[in-house]
Design brief:
single chain, nine-stranded mixed sheet, 1 helix, mainly beta
Amino acid sequence: MLLTYELWHPTLPEPARIVHDMAPLEAMLESTAPRDAGEVVTFMASYVEASRSEESDDAATPTVNVTIDNVSGLLSDALRIARGTNIPWELIERVYASDDLSGPAMLPVLRLTFTESTIDGTSATLRASYGDPVNVAVPRLTYKPEEYPGLTAR
């Protein structure tokens, strides 16, 4: 099984795609991928270490910590470009079987949002989560008189 990660931010010209392996990987994305759907793309080889938070009844939003070797400087350059924007980063984890690269072996793929990143000279550590479904406003839509003039008092 080959673990791959796609890191995306709108300030990037193209997503950063990485595989935890010794050689680059050319594999086809799922037909529902947000970018390059159904196309064969290249994942750069890099050392990747991933860990997930423990599950428990009192746990906060589940998180994934991903540490990626940053020898090429790819991630530090990308994070520097995106610094100062309020648009969140997206992390997509795909698992491929080495004998079938026609699509991810596990669907749906894991889609997360960055909550924190740290870069040192040799690696980038990223923390991502599923979001916070417990603290979502209900209803999700906030009705404002400026946007819905029919709501004004009569």
